[in-house]
Amino acid sequence: MSSLESKLAAASLGTAAVEGQPAAEPLKSLFAKKKKKKFGIKLTQERPKEKGAKPRAAAAPTTFKAADYASSARRGADVSAQNNCTLEALSVALYAARAFREGFARSPGSSPVADALREVLAGVASNDVPSAANEALRQALATRGGAIGAAFAYADAAEVLELLLDALERDAPHAAATCTSVGYRLVRKPCLLCGDDSAAGPVAETRDVRTFSVNAALVLNLLATAQSPTFADLFREARADAPVSCRACGERACAVSGAMEAVAPVLIVNLTWVSTPEGAAVAQLVRGALLPFDAGVAFDGGAAATYLCVATVCFKGDHYTAYARPPPSAVDLRYPPLWTLRDRFVDRGSGDLEWLLGELSGAKPKLPSLMVYVRV
Ligand SMILES: [Zn+2]
Question: How far is the CA of 199 from the centre of ligand 1 (A)?
Fold first, then answer.
């Protein structure tokens, strides 16, 4: 198996397609923003008070002015959420992917990460709030490094997912395998102008990929100009390399696009956002992304299969939440079923597609960070 470095590189595949961005330097996204905060009080291990509860701030200001203390306590609670909400949302989203769940069940091995995740998923299954198990999972992962291990650091969902899958590769290999697509490579196409195909073919080594990064702004740009694209079309375009020069006619008319030998049963798209667009644009993108996703189109014919989104991990105001729906089922004629918002494992409401789009496209949009698809 490849090293963590190559996996992280694979995770940032596709960012190279962005105009003016060198391949070696992945785009910074809102999600990747690291926040270091220091406070005199230690609130990290505590669950924040439920809404409506008065912050303890009002109780007994000592060395702070009351207003400062209230603000500090509030931010402390946010930091606590940051440290665990990423994993909470990820667990809810992974649970929604049946293939992952079943793969995990087929990996009975014991390790701190696997044992904690087993408890977390059992909690999600029974509509419980497995916060203690989630914290145990965070601590088990923290020993492996990354932002999730640093006090007051802010953990990006895609990074944490890589960290988790990396651990599961050893601890629960069947689960990791369900999220690992095999044989991704860039392929040079015949010249669009003269048809020369003497240099056509794979241009890079194959590699395995767990999350497919796509620049959301690029997708939105393409959406504005394309005729009647599907999200799979936009996904392919946004991840394509710049065309290269033809050996015969010299024009830059040889397209380079990604091809895949086998797309994993659970396909995870990592949308990266460099800025927050208007809510309407987010809704437009998500509406398209929730239609059946044709992997044959997305990977240029290399891997025909249809996928449906069953969960999305969203980001707003330093906080991750997850929207999930039951997986497609041959016996459930009411598909698509309702989406449910889970915030810190707690059910915060359900609704249909329009409800979900309304949730994401407010005045300050909730940005979908990870889209979890399952093969149908
Ligand atoms: Zn040519």
Answer: 10
